[in-house]
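Notes taken during the Thursday session

The instructor put the following on the board and asked us to keep it in front of us for the whole hour. The protein is prephenate dehydrogenase. We were told not to look anything up and to reason only from what is written here. First, the residues (286 in total):
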Amino acid sequence: MIQRLCVLGVGLIGGSLALALKRSGAVGEIVGYERDPLCRAKALSLGIIDRAESGLADALRGAEVVVLAVPLGAMEGLFQEMAPLLKPEMVVTDVGSVKDSVVTAARAALGARIVDFVPGHPLAGTEKSGPEAAFADLFYLHKVILTPLPENRPEAVETVRMMWHRVGAEVVEISSTYHDRVLAGVSHLPHVLAFALMDLLAKVGEPQDTLQFAAGGFRDFSRIASSDPTVWRDICLANREPLLALLEQFEAELHTLGEALRRGDGGKLVEIFARAKAARDIHYNA
Ligand SMILES: NC(=O)C1=CN([C@@H]2O[C@H](COP(=O)(O)OP(=O)(O)OC[C@H]3O[C@@H](n4cnc5c(N)ncnc54)[C@H](O)[C@@H]3O)[C@@H](O)[C@H]2O)C=CC1
Ligand SMILES: O=C(O)C(=O)Cc1ccc(O)cc1
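Then, after some discussion, the predicted structure tokens were revealed:
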């Protein structure tokens, strides 16, 4: 049982974690720290948090576990501000979609207190944001990646592992660098492609006229282009190198496809499409 949990940033992810932990009975009091007064009020009125604070010292006081659930661009500043306020009994974790940059910022700001910072990333979310979008089932039966540090106290890792376990998530541990390389492929590049496609369609046509002719496949593929632009700016910039490496390979892949199309080379198209289908089917239709 966590007596008091402090969530920094009560949006989709921080709010959903608060709701899920409350429902599970794993936490006594949940304190929310929010920069945006509207989100603060909303999180309180929706019963997501028990208490809202606009000052970090008041928010952190007496917390056993602190969860950073702010956009990646806000993490470094928060680590710096919280460093002098952390007490020996506090365990700190985050939910950021990129891990190496968060680890670097935490190491620089937290000094010896890094032993109690356990980096995390729930592999669950939606294209919506803010406290109104939060829901208690978000993490149920989803994976949560932890990228523990060599310096971590084992008890701190166990506390974070248990927190996610209590909301029905499956916890796995990998290195932060491997995390960032894999997530560039299965999350960050797909979001970039969806944004790029929607941007292109918005420029070449009138989406409000043409989208009425789109079928389910388009809706599936483009859904994530409705994600928050600033949250995704931060993710792309934080994982710039792995993302750029993959983007360049993707450009080459598109070039190969384009050349095959230009030549009328149906054999090449089937070769590429069949390899792609097999790779996807082996995972999803096994
Ligand atoms: N959106 C998604 O599906 C997922 C997001 N993540 C990660 O979760 C984190 C939060 O993302 P979301 O919940 O989607 O965003 P969100 O926009 O729904 O929530 C973020 C909240 O943080 C607040 N905030 C921003 N800067 C702040 C600051 N300096 N101090 C206090 N509060 C501040 C905002 O007012 C907002 O309420 C990000 O780091 C993101 O990479 C992780 C998994 C899934
Ligand atoms: O909306 C979706 O399907 C997502 O992919 C949500 C998401 C966004 C960011 C993450 O780091 C993890 C999950």
